[in-house]
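> Could you send the YegS/Rv2252/BmrU family lipid kinase prediction when you get a chance?

Sure thing. Input:
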Amino acid sequence: MRYFIVNRVSGNGRGLARWSRIEPVLRDKGIPYRVAFTERPGHATELAREAVKMGVRAVVAVGGDGTVNEVGNGLLGTNVPFGYIPAGSGNDFAAAQGIPKDPVKALERVLKHSPRSVDTADFGGRVMVSSVGVGFDGQVAKTVNESKWKQRWGKGSYAIGVLKELRRFQPTGVTLEVDGQVIREEGVWLIAIANISCYGGGMKICPEAKNDDGILDICLVRGISRWKLLRLFPLVFSGRHVNYPYVVMLRGKEIRVSADRPLVVHADGEIVGETPVSVSVRPQSLTIL
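Output:
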């Protein structure tokens, strides 16, 4: 039996719409399944853990990147495979894994049942599946998540958030520790710690990041004016920002970020706290379809 966890409100109701598309297919094919709908933050993690105890063949999330994070946290360290039907506003995890946008085609991929192991990363007692963002990045995520226009604008909502926060955010000094090496940078705007190449709805913040290589990619932006940052921003969608002197690219397994003032931190698009934050890779810790 496959266990589906559906976030009905994800993507301005796309979660429920996607489920309405795939449930008839399951019935027509005579595939045993069970479905549960999330009711609150963290509920998907609870449901995934319950599904593991039931001995299901796979757990399939229908929602956005936040739902991916919650279900991933529930399945971490188990042998139960994780399938995904994208229904969010960004769907970066789906893009990184080559999961089709069309729900029926995504379901076909799940039903082929070809499991493989990927990395995740620990931070503060939780796990991130795709990325952690600190500073300007986290503040934009916070603004977008609290906005009324996230559902309306979908992937474009992050760009709107950037424009809103660009005037208010104050860069600060940051101490970054990567595998024991201490790096001090002033005037830091953001630090992205990535397990996949994209975040924020298609931005290739760490173009070389892969979630099966046992290492995390880091992008640090510092020493840049607001105007230049605005000009640099569109290049992130192609990954060409990495060629500019304001951008530092690093890689590591154990990462700690502390700052001269508290900076907002997000994991997989959801706000999880403030600096300091420590992130460590967990190789081959999640099985996906």
